[in-house]
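note to self: dont lose this again. the chain is below, predicted strucutre after it. 378 aa total, dont forget to put it in the shared folder this time
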Amino acid sequence: MKILHTSDWHLGKSLSNVPFDADQAHALQQLADYLAGHPHDLLVVAGDIFDRPTPSPESVRVLGSWLGRLRQFAPDMAVVLISGNHDNGPRLAWTASILDHQGVYLRGETGAIDQPIEVRGSDGVQAQVWAVPFLAAGALDEATPSQVGAMDEALRRIRDRQDATKAQVLVGHCFVQDCTTSDSERAFIGTATQIDVKAFDGFDYVALGHLHRPQAPARHVRYAGSIARYSFSEVGYSKLFLSVDVAPGRPCEVTELPLRDLRGMHRISGSLQDLLTNPKFHHLVDDYVELTLDPPVDVGNPHDQLRTRWHNILQFHNELAPLSSALQTMPDGADGKRDLEADFVAFDRQFTDSSEPDAGVLAAFRKLHQELAAKEAE
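---
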């Protein structure tokens, strides 16, 4: 049986008000193109379909339209989608009773965890697919509420109903111990929420979502990772989806299929002048960038200046000295007290790149200063 494993689409994702819609569409088109040319028996999407519990109408349309196109060239392929920690499980799966009859299995609630989805491959292999959506602590009324306890209870219920003559495939959304996180997922703190990979013994393949870095905590346990880069901690590795050959009681065979980026993602540092004019950056100005000014700039608004050249600044660093340090360098007045008006003029000159404050602004400052002084005198 051939399974295509993907996860963490995060439809509707944006960062610094820059939407990732085009990047997601680019990745999903590659996924559809591959499936059109390479038939599979089962498609698995292991959670975080959407980026928010209440996805936008456009995000919902993207999912529906993509599944509709899929059915045009893969009418018999089973499709299993589970909810992740970003999804609203009941909202995602509200049409399950209808779509089950179309071979599209949406699972977002715990009631069907011990009810296998039966899939027969074109090679005759039969599989029981166990869909385990993201489990919060207490989701299964486990004795000691925790995510580890909820997963243990889910697996206990599943094992009571496994058929050893069929391939055992589990789809889950969780954090396995000793795996590597990135900045873009909501990683759990501590080890109490992290699943021991040995808990998945007895399955032929475990298709996981939640962690955005593709990785294999065990030979038969894989994270496909997210379909696009959602943080700069993901710059150093490729995005991909997985094609998996599964048969009962035999080691699975996994093929990694890289996704091509729509835009690159880079961390770049340099002087303001260099970032504004150096031709070596010309081919990067439409990519996603984290820009760091070195040396920092304390005059004007360098961020707005840089946006005239760099079109997708997702993060910007201009590490100025703390205000307390700056004040320490300003001389006190003749009476040994701070000259607040002089401080204000210096501050305004520094950040507006003008020799003197606007007359109206200075008048407003003086009025406020006088009112505060009067209150202190009372």
